[in-house]
Amino acid sequence: xxxxxxxxxxxxxxxxxxxxxxxxxxxxxxxxxxxxxxxxxxxxxxxxxxxxxxxxxxxxxxxxxxxxxxxxxxxxxxxxxxxxxxxxxxxxxxxxxxxxxx
Length: 102
Hints:
Blueprint: H1 2-20, H2 71-84, H3 89-100
């Protein structure tokens, strides 16, 4: 009788321990325990108040000169001018080289 009581206690303890182990892992409904955790939420956006122009303030102007055309733009313009002047390929090459390097 004593053996039967010990075996029943061991089996009951094993069943209780087996039932309590899955309860420690929190799984969302419809999810899997193999899914990675969700990433942290993104930081909140910065909200800045726009600058309100003043009525009495003089307008701010940029006195920087406009940048000139790039070398590629100058070559394209010179080649287009050479075609419009009906120059041949070798004359057009020489003309565009001299024109773009001015």
